[in-house]
Structure formats: C-alpha cells, structure tokens
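Appendix B. Raw example, untouched.
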Amino acid sequence: MSLLLECQFTELPPDNSLDTKQFLDAVSHIPSFFDCLGSKVFTLIKSDINGNITKIKGVYVKDPARYATLQQILEAEREDHAAEWPKVGATLALMWLKRGLRFVQILLKSLADGEKDENNPNLIQVNVTKAYEEALKKYHGWIVQKIFKAALIAAPYRSDFLKALSKGEEVKEEDCLANVRQFLVNYTVTVDAIYDMYTNLNAELDYTV
C-alpha cells in the first residue's frame, strides 16, 4: 500500500470550501512523508507541520460548529483578534502549514513529471531543490537556508525514496508514480484552495524566520 494513498484528500465541493475535520484527518498523515526523505534536517519541516496541525486542531475542538470550515476559522479569528490578525492562532498556523504542503506538492509533481538530473538520474536533489526554492526559501533567513542547503545535498536516492513511499515494498517505478499522480489530484486542489483563501482574505504574510 502506498503511503500517499493512506492519506487521500477528499474532492472539494463546488464552492471549494474546506471542511476542517476532513482536512485535519487527511493532513495528519502528511508528516510521515518526511521520514521518506531520510535526512534529519527534514524533521524540521515535519516538526513544524505537526505543530501547526496541533494548533489548528486545538482551535477547532473548542467549537466545531463555529469552525466547521477553514475559512470560518480565519474569519472568526479576524473578528476575535482584529489587532493581531492574521499573525495569530490557527490563521498563522495554517499559513505556515500550507507552505509545507506546497513543498510536498511541488516535489511530488516534479517527480511525476519526470524531472531529473540527466547526469545523476537516481538522485532527487533537482526535485527537492525545486520544491524548497518555490515553496519555502523566500520565508527563510540565510541561516535557515544554509541548513536546508545541507539537507538538499543529503536527499535520498530516487529509488530509495520511491520505495519508502511504497512503505518498503518492491513496486515498479511507474506504478509508484501512478499512485503519486492519483494522490496529487485532490491534494493539489486542496492546497491551491487554501492559498486562494489567504489571498482573498488578505491574510498572507511574508516575514522570514
């Protein structure tokens, strides 16, 4: 069984509303994805994602009816914390979480699209670097960037990474990539919808850490 198919995201309704409980159930499986990347440096992203999921869940369980969708959470926190919003609570946690989710999205799509270093086709540095530069780099100061540069060099072999995604099973590469493409369908729509929500609510912040 593919690791990704264990955390399938549901198809969004026509209005692209994001059910909070369904989202939290699906996204709770994403941190284990980073174990497949091997390097301990990627545990920084894993830890960040876990922490942000916990923060969002902590808000949701206080009033599931009021926070039934992710947009309702952002709108409620904007009302409750006008002075600090959006740098507060679940709004801030989801802002950072979506960036980690975008990293996963870009990395997997790059692999599924067949992008590779022709001189080192069994390395995924090209894919991981693309994901980091497009999803996370602009939000990191130079010290954090140096840490991740070391992690990119330590990225696993392509074959080892795909085997890890298949939970250690010997699976043909084309079958594993087919699972990746299947996972990306609803996952991509979900991540894009969260980004659109932040744009529409003017909730995006560009500070670095």
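End of appendix B.
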